[in-house]
Design a protein that fits this description.
This protein is 25% helix and 15% strand. By secondary structure, it is an alpha/beta fold. The chain has one domain: Alkaline Phosphatase, subunit A (3-Layer(aba) Sandwich), CATH 3.40.720.10. Strands 11-2-10-9-1-8-4-5-6-7-17 form an 11-stranded mixed sheet, with helices on both faces. It has a 4-stranded antiparallel sheet with strand order 13-14-15-16, covered by helices on one side. A hairpin with a 2-residue loop joins strand 14 (419-424) and strand 15. The protein is globular. Bound molecules: 2-acetamido-2-deoxy-beta-D-glucopyranose (2 copies). One 2-acetamido-2-deoxy-beta-D-glucopyranose (NAG) is lined by residues 67, 355.
Length: 542
């Protein structure tokens, strides 16, 4: 038994190594460009193409991208909250290995452990121009900031757009108040160690390692992202340099800041349409530069934040009914399908067959090995990876993805990082259930399940009725799942490359352009520092 087990692990590692080392040849030596677009808190059902019967028209550009590319219908964010999901996407490893199991705060001192190797770092070494636009949320101080983790260029917000005040707050529940009005010449630093939209620290906009605006004007962010993204695409093309553009949108996270004069009753739809136009602009810039050599991969970081009611997205058919019928929400922060099954489209004209869809079981962790494989880059062999190279699914019609995929707890009650749920084929087993706060405030409690609850997602995507434990089907599946879960836990427990994240906080760690001013406001008297279209530097982060 012990020998067989070791052999199994070894062969698993070898296979993983082979997959990662495979170099895909594609028409000469020209390296492909990569655009990874990560939406925030978007629901599987928000993509029109995922629910054609609903006859909505919120995402025409993404629908077109799906028609010219591939829709991945069983694609999962690696976690159901922000920081762990992003850490796993950039490292190809579960949070239990990369150390990031829950969110960082405004006052976090550290971030993604420095022992972790990131996707942009590896591509940068191979001559790629690496740019990031948008929400980072993997540590904003010193060595943890994006430009020190592999990005040549960065423009964006260091964490979520509700973690800091703005002068004109967008739509949130409860509604955020505006920042305290500026009182120049009054020295009064107010820093809250707390996250959330009531943080007294103004939301900063950061370029490279400088705060260029604070508080950020949320309502012009989309335009800033759009012009930076199109500029990056065009200038990389002019230099003839392959590039990685990681665009981590503020959409669809609250506070929503849709175009002015949007119908109050349709704020979410208006924001979704705005996001879709931004994606369309990026696609168009790419199509007009290096169309046939650019892969665009659109996905989400986790499911909708149900607690935000009308400002939350749609889980589509993945309603987590077992949970909702017992109280609590079943989307973001949970391991119910609505928490991590995310709308995903891959587009690469001439390479990815047009108008196709795949139900291969895939994860955001697969972005790392897949892009490296397409670029002909081998990741360091001193660590273990959990993502798989999905090249054959994207390019060659392969329908199989992960044999087993684990969904970690990253928000609801219980230990962060706990492997609550295992997926294999059409079956999903819950060892622990737990709910996040629903619209209306219900929360549901954490519950251990021994024997586990097992759902057949093919016939019961809404996870309503678990299989009868007496059936042979249940017993066979439960045995396979339990064995695999124990193997993975053993493997992680014995993994020498596991990193530990430092989650300690200190009020002084909050990004602040000028501690002498209310809400860390860049001095309005110094016009060069505030809302300057030229982005003159206010303050350099140490
Ligand atoms: C950021 O870096 C780019 C070069 O990559 C440079 O052109 C730009 O001026 C920098 N911005 C700031 C605010 O330092
Ligand atoms: C894409 O496929 C769908 C059905 O699978 C079909 O109705 C539609 O016409 C196709 N679109 C194009 C542009 O071929």
């Amino acid at each position: 038994m012990a020998v067989g087990f070791t052999l199994f692990l070894l062969s698993g590692m070898l296979m993983c190594g082979l997959l990662l080392h495979k170099v895909t040849q594609h028409g000469g030596s020209k390296k492909p460009n990569f655009i990874v677009i990560l939406a925030d808190d978007i629901g599987w059902g928000d993509l029109d193409a995922n629910q054609p019967d609903e006859k909505r028209n919120n995402t025409p550009h993404l629908n077109l991208m799906a028609e010219q590319g591939q829709r991945l219908t069983d694609f999962h964010s690696p976690a159901s909250t922000c920081s762990p999901s992003r850490a796993a996407i950039l490292t190809g490893r579960y949070g239990l290995r990369n150390g990031v199991t829950h969110n960082f705060a405004v006052s976090s001192l550290a971030g993604l452990p420095l022992s972790e190797v990131t996707l942009p770092q590896l591509l940068q070494k191979e001559g790629y121009y690496t740019a990031m636009i948008g929400k980072w949320h993997l540590g904003h101080n010193g060595p943890y900031a994006p430009t020190n983790r592999g990005f040549d260029y960065y423009l964006g917000i260091p964490y979520s757009n509700d973690m800091g005040c703005t002068d004109i707050p967008g739509y949130n529940l409860p509604q955020c108040p505006p920042c305290e009005s500026p009182e120049p010449h009054v020295t009064r630093l107010k820093r809250s160690a707390r996250g959330g939209c009531y943080s007294k620290v103004g939301l900063p906009l950061i370029e490279n390692s400088s705060i260029v605006q604070q508080p950020l004007d949320l309502w012009t962010l989309t335009e800033q992202y759009k012009s930076a993204a199109t500029r990056i695409i065009r200038s990389a093309r002019e230099r003839g340099q392959p590039y990685l553009l990681y665009l981590a949108l503020a959409h669809m996270h609250v506070p929503l800041a849709p175009p002015l004069h949007s119908d109050e009753g349709r704020v979410y739809a208006a924001s979704l349409q705005e996001m879709d136009r931004l994606v369309g602009a990026v696609k168009s810039a790419s199509d007009h530069t290096d169309r046939d050599n650019t892969l665009i991969w659109f996905t989400g970081d986790n499911g909708p934040w149900e607690q935000k009611c009308q400002y939350a997205g749609s889980v589509g058919p993945f309603m987590g009914k077992w949970q909702t019928s017992r109280g609590g929400g079943s989307a973001k922060r949970t391991t119910w399908e609505g928490g991590h099954r995310v709308p995903t489209v891959a587009y690469w004209p001439g390479r990815i067959p047009a108008n196709t869809s795949s139900s291969a079981l895939l994860s955001g962790m697969d972005v790392f090995p897949t892009l490296l494989s397409l670029a002909g880059v081998t990741p360091p062999s001193d660590r273990r990876y959990d993502g798989i190279d999905a090249t054959d699914v994207l390019l060659h019609g392969e329908q199989t993805g992960h044999e087993f995929l684990f969904h970690p707890n990253s928000g609801a009650a219980g230990e962060f990082g706990d492997l609550q749920t295992v997926r294999s084929g059409k079956h999903k087993a819950f060892y622990i259930t737990g709910a996040a706060e629903a619209c209306g405030g219900a929360t549901g409690r954490e519950q251990l399940h021994d024997p586990p609850l097992i759902f057949d997602l093919e016939v019961d995507g809404s996870e309503e009725t678990p299989l009868d434990t007496e059936t042979l089907e249940y017993q066979a599946v439960a045995q396979r799942m339990a064995r695999r879960r124990e193997e993975l836990l053993w493997d992680i427990a014995n993994d020498k490359s596991v990193s530990a994240a430092d989650y300690s906080t200190d009020a002084s760690a909050a990004p602040c352009c000028d501690p002498e001013h209310t809400v860390c406001r860049c001095d309005p008297e110094h016009t060069a520092c505030h809302c300057d279209p030229e982005h003159t530097v206010c303050h350099t982060l140490s």
